[in-house]
Amino acid sequence: MLILISGPSGSGKGTVCARLMENFPDLDLKLSVSATTRPPRPGEVHGRDYFFMSREEFEKLVAEGGFLEWAPIYGYFYGTPAGPVRDALARGESVVLEIDVQGGLQIKEQFPDAVLIFLIPPSRKVLRDRLISRGTDSRAEIEKRMIWVDTELSFMFRYDYILVNDRLGDTVFKVRCILEAERSRARRFTLPGGWRT
Amino acid sequence: MLILISGPSGSGKGTVCARLMENFPDLDLKLSVSATTRPPRPGEVHGRDYFFMSREEFEKLVAEGGFLEWAPIYGYFYGTPAGPVRDALARGESVVLEIDVQGGLQIKEQFPDAVLIFLIPPSRKVLRDRLISRGTDSRAEIEKRMIWVDTELSFMFRYDYILVNDRLGDTVFKVRCILEAERSRARRFTLPGGWRT
């Protein structure tokens, strides 16, 4: 199963993904690591948070068809390396992708069975406050992000699920429920051995 | 939200519904009570387990359009009184219906947004054992039920979710997750006040 978690910058999607992996090892999820040309923020680790690449390296991988999707966002390139995702799915594992809304919809076209979850902060004000207190973006960048948010929200209803990320614990529990529910979908069901005749 | 819980006789749907109401009062669910012409089993209470009716009373209600669905099952009539369900949904409450598979699919036609959950015992053998140990049905009745099961299973894939009811606690948790997930569906989402401009 492929699970896509999207939301505006500042929606807390990274934290939700991290908590999900941490709290529910029983779900046996694999977090896909994206590639980006954006420079690392303090504390970010290559190969854990992102594969940090030069623009040249990124473009080479694009040319080789090495991405499931890629897009420029706020002047940098972001992409989802195809290999690790395809391998994990082939092994029957569940893969979680933290991805922007455009990328999410591109992947849904290739994997119609993917589960799309959109996270939205409780309000415009909360989002702006989160971006400011993160302290990684300039005032001008924050305003750019706030303008972009309305575009993202206009795509939101193409997702399967929308969660207001108010309290982290509640949101993580809801995502867990969505995964549990999706695993019980009739279209994914196979009759247990004791029913075959 | 309307939640339909179906499954063969002996799948444990009654117990799952009862546990759901008991364990999760926070979900604010209302259990719909069916009407039947079948005589009460020991311990069953009129108005709690079923509305027990004579055949004449049942047919009068049918003629008045008082059922969402009704059907003959194993020689008795069963039906879902329409009034209480319509009233609860109009008040914005969530209603749980424990219902046979034919009835479930009839209701889905009238309420396309209804969530259909099918419970299946882990195996044919477990089902037969449960029916025998329940001690309420004759040997011949049990065999009739076992034959009917294959018809029910053939409708199963029209449901939204299928759960193997092996351990009661797991099944109840999964139903809870399904309800949580369904409440977060994009098509049921309304943008919080802090996002309107």
Question: How would you describe what is shown here?
Answer:
- The structure is a homodimer of 197-residue chains.
- By secondary structure, chain A is of the alpha/beta class.
- Chain A has one domain: Rossmann fold (3-Layer(aba) Sandwich), CATH 3.40.50.300.
- Chain A is 43% helix and 21% strand.
- Chain A has seven helices and nine strands; from the N terminus they run E-H-E-E-E-H-E-E-H-E-H-E-H-H-E-H.
- Chain A has helices at 13-23, 55-63, 82-90, 101-110, 124-134, 139-156, 168-183; strands spanning 2-6, 29-31, 34-36, 50-52, 67-73, 76-81, 94-98, 115-120, 161-164.
- In chain A, the strands form two sheets. In chain A, strands 2-7-1-8-9 form a five-stranded parallel sheet, with helices on both faces.
- In chain A, strand 5 and strand 6 (76-81) form a beta hairpin.
- The longest helix of chain A is centred in the last third of the chain and has 18 residues, at 139-156.
- Chain A is globular, with a radius of gyration of 17 Å.
- The mean pLDDT of chain A is 92.
- The A-B interface holds A 118, 120, 122-126, 153, 156-164, 173-174, 176-178, 180-182, 184-187, 189, 191-195, 197 and B 118, 120, 122-126, 153, 156-164, 173-174, 176-178, 180-182, 184-187, 189, 191-195, 197.
